[in-house]
Amino acid sequence: MSVRKDSVELGVTNLGFRDADGDASDTISEAESVEKQESVGVKMDPEEKYNQMKPYAGMPKEVLLLYSSQARYRVPREVLFWLMVCVTLALVAVTITLIALSPRCLSWWQASPVYQVYPRSFKDSDGDGVGDLKGIMEKLDHFQYLNIKSVWISPFYRSPMKDFGYDVEDFRDIDPLFGTMQDFEELLAAMHDRGLKLIMDFIPNHTSDRHRWFNLSRIRDPHYDDYYVWVDCDPNGPKPNNWVSIFGNSSWTYDEVRGQCYLHQFLKEQPDLNFRNPNVVQEIIDIIHFWLKKGVDGFRMDAVKHILEAAHLRDEPQVDPNKPPELVTTEWDLHSDYTTSQVGLHDLLREFRAVLDTYSREPSKYRFMVTESYDYDEVEKTMMYYSTHLVRESDFPFNFYLLDLPHNASGVWAKHLVHIWMGNMPRGEWPNWVVGNHDRHRIGSSAGPAYVRVINMLLLTLPGTPTTYYGEEIGMENINVTQSEIQDPAGKYNTSASRDPERSPMQWNGDMNAGFNNKTNITWLPVHPDYETVNVEVQMKDSGSVLSQYRFLSNLRESELALHRGWFCYIHADANVFSYLRELDGLNRAYLMVLNFGKESAITDLSSIPELPDQLMVLLSTNQVNDGKVYQKSQIQTEAGEGLVIQYSTSRRYNPNHPEECYVSEKACYLPTINILYKC
Ligand code: GLC
Ligand code: MG
């Protein structure tokens, strides 16, 4: 082994490279070298010696350690170390502060409108005249075109179709009319691939009379004996009490097999489940698990106020106490004190909700719940379905008040209906608005076609989640259904209550059957005769169409902070016009809506509002020729049925000076310098 004393002393030769000669035995550690020097009697301080050479690649550990303890290496290293510690701590602190200051992100059910598909009427892929799951699959582009991310599909469970799917024979199966379980799974996967969420209809209150449980209950199978509400009654005698079905007449029907009466708050083919039986509750919970495991994103809970009935079965008080009892046949004749909104109802819904929540834990897998309950002038009952900070229930109960708009169309009435919700909604909750569904006449027909656009404009510029019933985005109207064509059981009882008019096939194009079905000439309900002009294809080509305006507003709602999470403030209401603004603290761009629901054209004078600039430019008018028009704020003109979205810029906020006129679900402010939102 050679000794490299020379090179150590000179401090110039890199020993590591000498090994490249191939002589492994040439390798020497610095430590050995030092030992050698000392053994030949040269006394040197090792530190001093190493000061004379440079570190080299491949130096052994011992040498490395000697170098690394030298001050010129050690000090920078320690400085760097502490710097890293400080930077890391600072980053953690900044992150925590940002998280603490950031308002919650909107969840998917808040971020986009909910679109309701009535599957019988949306798109028929196989030509049997009834829409189906494959048909929906063919039309996913439509949702994306409208910037819609949440789709609620009315029931497609196996069903005898007495109430078109709201009478469920098997909660775990798909009706062959709509397709197969595989079709469902493919639809769900395709929707998820496109970032679309699927909300299922869920019907806890009743089953079909063909459901296995009912068959077993009729024969008094011990386990199923009280799955339904059975009461002794005489087949030819009086009913157990005066309760009536929503579809009319007594809600009690005698069953020959069991020899008792059973309760049905809807059709006699829809017996009410007995939720006082814990096994029934468990059955429903199991079904919720079944669909959540398949990956559905949420449920629309049907007819929830009917879930429980008073156990005492007393007669309900008549609205008109003098009416002869035999004429008491509709829900409007009775105060439904014992058949709706009973104590215990919310506990059940909260139990269902808790199941959803166990599936919400995965990131971006939030499961949504909306409840259906018409409480009319008892709005406080509806509000009870909202979750609170302590107990979770609905994300929101459906808000049906705008469905009343046509009955008294005016600016004051529109404000009144909006205020029913905003004035009663618990603080911090998220509003929502429904202007059409499969149970109510199309708003284009009840308000008149001239008001369709302004109603869509209202829907998409109010705070909260808008719900759009299929076809509202193109302004579809009711069809006329003759007596012999009536399909709806409610219509068979009372023609004027028929829901067929609003369930006609979706109008996709000007081809046969409006493109709903292009294989045969059958459609389960007639197609509206206006389909050649009122259809998706034609309206996509027209920038001023109902569809294009819907799409514009849906995009605007998503892109503009003020519209999807800003303040909502009432500005003005009169016989024609309802006006409100949307603004966000810190953001100069705000929106003023001037909507004319009345019968006459109007000039609205907003000159008394200093927060508005003097000149206001129309971003979108339902009357396309007025796009871009500039109005003095003292003279904003609208025709009957015209709505304006005005975008303006201001540094003066309206909400601080009018707290009683303004609402916000969760306050957030904008910091323009660094372009962030923060809690304020
Ligand atoms: C809900 C549905 C309606 C159905 C009823 C009975 O109100 O929206 O269509 O007939 O429940 O299930
Ligand atoms: Mg079909």
TrEMBL record:
Region (Disordered): 21-40
Domain of life: Eukaryota
Transmembrane segments: 79-101
GO CC terms in record: apical plasma membrane
Record localization: Apical cell membrane
SMART domains: Aamy (SM00642)
Membrane topology: Single-pass type II membrane protein
Domain Glycosyl hydrolase family 13 catalytic: 116-503
GO biological process: amino acid transport; carbohydrate metabolic process
Keywords: Amino-acid transport, Cell membrane, Disulfide bond, Glycoprotein, Membrane, Phosphoprotein, Signal-anchor, Transmembrane, Transmembrane helix, Transport
Chief location bin: membrane
Subunit annotation: Disulfide-linked heterodimer composed of the catalytic light subunit SLC7A9 and the heavy subunit SLC3A1. The heterodimer is the minimal functional unit. Assembles in non-covalently linked heterotetramers (dimers of heterodimers) and higher order oligomers; the oligomerization is mediated by SLC3A1 likely to prevent degradation in the endoplasmic reticulum and facilitate heteromer trafficking to the plasma membrane. Disulfide-linked heterodimer composed of the catalytic light subunit SLC7A13 and the heavy subunit SLC3A1.
Name under which the protein is recorded: Amino acid transporter heavy chain SLC3A1
Taxonomic source organism: Amphiprion percula
